Amino acid sequence: MAQREEAVTRLFSLEEVGLRNSRAQPTSEGAVLIELLRGEGKLKRRGDDMSVLKLAEWRRNWTGLTGDPLQYIGRNQGWSACFECSTEHEG
Questions:
Q1: What is the residue extent of each domain of the chain?
Q2: Secondary structure letter of residue 48 according to DSSP
Q3: How far are the Cα atoms of 66, 69, 70 from residue 60, in angstroms, in the given order?
């Protein structure tokens, strides 16, 4: 068995991962992901926001993460990504 230590970058469309519907509009979770990317990993939303919670669940299921990909920070009254978040990519 071999294990890689270097990072692997892959690009996926919202359609490929199920975060955009058949009318080419983001799902509620897709809209949150876009907001998270534009906010550089930060969201100003309530701690019980169902779209954020569903996105976190989707991220765990899609990537196989065991921890929380998003954390609510009460003192800031917002969410923070526990992963690198950027809208920039090299092409």
A1: 28-81
A2: T
A3: 7, 7, 10
Integer Cα distance of 11 and 66 in angstroms: 22
* DSSP H/E element including 76: none
pTM over 0.85: no
Could you tell me the CA-to-CA distances from 22 to 18, 50, 57, 75 in Å, in that order?
10, 22, 22, 38
pLDDT band at residue 42 under the 50/70/90 scheme = very high
**How confident is the model at residue 2, as a pLDDT?**
64
Tell me how far apart the alpha carbons of residues 55 and 8 are, in angstroms, rounded to a whole number.
22
Q: In the numeric block, which tokens belong to residue 1? A: 């068995």
Over range 33-37, report the average pLDDT.
Answer: 91
